[in-house]
Amino acid sequence: MSVCTQYYPDEPTAPVVKTSAVPGPESVKELESLGKVFDARPAYFMADYEKSKGNYIVDADGNTYLDLYAQIASIALGYNNPKLIEAAKSPEMIRALVDRPALGNFPSKDLTPILQKILKFAPKGQDKIWSGLSGADANELAFKAAFMYYRAKERGYNKDFSSEENVSVMKNAQPGSPHLAVLSFKKAFHGRLFASGSTTCSKPIHKLDFPAFEWPHAEYPHYQFPLTENDAANRAEDDRCLKIVEHLITSWSIPVAALIIEPIQSEGGDNHASKYFLQSLRDLTLKHGVVYIVDEVQTGVGATGKAWCHEWADIQPPVDLVTFSKKFQSAGYFFHDPLFVPNKPYRQFNTWCGEPARMIIAGAIAQEVQDQNLSAQCARVGDYLFGKLEALQSQYPEKFQRLRGQGRGTFIAWDLPSGAERDALLKSLKLKGCNVGGCAELSVRLRPTLSFEEKHADIFVDALSKAVAEI
């Protein structure tokens, strides 16, 4: 019996779209009502989560879609998963929700076993954790950790703050508020908060109108596909970008304390980084004393056929910090060097220091991914789906440009000739019962759950072939 059948014996067998447009009339009515008190303009449709099951999401009009977007890549196991419902009904969950503890000051006796379940799923080389509230928060917290670590190295780990530091920091001035930078990459997306916004460089709408730090953006490699036929060109592209990274580290107007990278840029267009590039960044960060942060918010928790995408690169020594959120339903960063724990309490701190209710769900997700070997399933299904897409590419080469994601589970994307054609394809797919997302200006990206199987891939490819023929 397949994993999906075990979880969802009554999962729909096919999509059903009853309305002539998406969103349908009931969704439109409910979204108009919602819009009076909440910004509902980005909504695809009004979802009915009570009726959604497994890999299918249902809307207010009763339309049932095969979901290959999964709440912007944040549903790991499928809708209404029985194991997560079981975890949600646990005594630990009740305590976490009703008496939400301020974990820094009053940690619950449940906290250690909750964190141990998450740490069993930590990236290779990482054995410690700090928790947050969202992907953007995880990255902001990682920046704080990196800055404190960087300054501690300069000051001396056992040295106290000087009186000058204590006075100047209250004026937002040096040396207490040092001028330090985080290097990120063009087309990156690391969040919409202030420091994370300064490292985000995907779309203007993500960061317009709020102040930003003057931090550098290097170029992310832009590969030619298929990869196996373009080894030399892609290695040259890696080397070109690595030279830019090192130049920025050594020449920027203020010290670069940290570097952050997505192993696959998601919002920026599903751009992949090679093993060589990710390892070479490790070499550069060690050479120049820069903290290496890998942002696994969207790529983590099995979606690429491994628990964590950067594990495909086997980076040695392990990176310093790995941030997570989305499919883990929790947030934070993993680390291994105890010197990333600040020298004094209350430095990495807030009221809740994360969300124990979400950590309980994260632990349950991790357990299921391990018990059901879902990363391997994702790799298998991804290979199957990629083969189907290659066949479509041979039939419609202009509609499947730069097909990428081979060997990376279901983390698959391709480009259309124009944004208008990409948007038309996504619209057509919804009317055919498949909820699919885009990224950047031209790309279609697939982000199904880890319980997505070959039968779902067949349904999607059938709908896709009809939609492509129409645009």
What's the gist of this structure?
It is an enzyme of class 2 (transferase). The chain is α/β, with parallel strands linked by helices and 471 residues long.
How would you describe the overall organization of this protein?
This is 4-aminobutyrate aminotransferase. It is an enzyme of class 2 (transferase). The protein is α/β, with parallel strands linked by helices and 471 residues long. It has two domains: 3-81 and 373-470, Alpha-Beta Complex (Aspartate Aminotransferase, domain 1), CATH 3.90.1150.10; 101-354, 3-Layer(aba) Sandwich (Aspartate Aminotransferase, domain 2). The protein contains 15 helices and 16 strands. A seven-stranded mixed beta sheet has the order 3-11-10-9-6-4-5, sandwiched between helices. A four-stranded antiparallel beta sheet has the order 12-13-16-15, covered by helices on one side. Helix 6 (111-119) packs parallel to helix 12. The mean pLDDT is 97.
